[in-house]
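Problem: given the chain below (93 residues), write out its structure.
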Amino acid sequence: MPLTKNEMMTMLYNQLNISRKECVDIVESFFEIIKSELEKGNPVMISGFGKWTVRPKRERKGRNPQTGEDLTITARKVVTFKASPNLISSINP
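Solution.
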């Protein structure tokens, strides 16, 4: 089961003993900062956790799997995440 923003807010509320509104503001602000930096094309690195980067993908040929029709997939930007060695080692002890 994935961890949701709402569950993060509840965890902060339980661990930090601050108001729910402050927890909502903290979590929303955190994600808004990450989103805004990625929109600018800046990488976001959190030491001990990992790094998000925006990477361009070029236009390429594809195929509709239902119809088999050839199509062109347009160029776009994608967000990639590379986990830090600390995170990887904690997941795989």
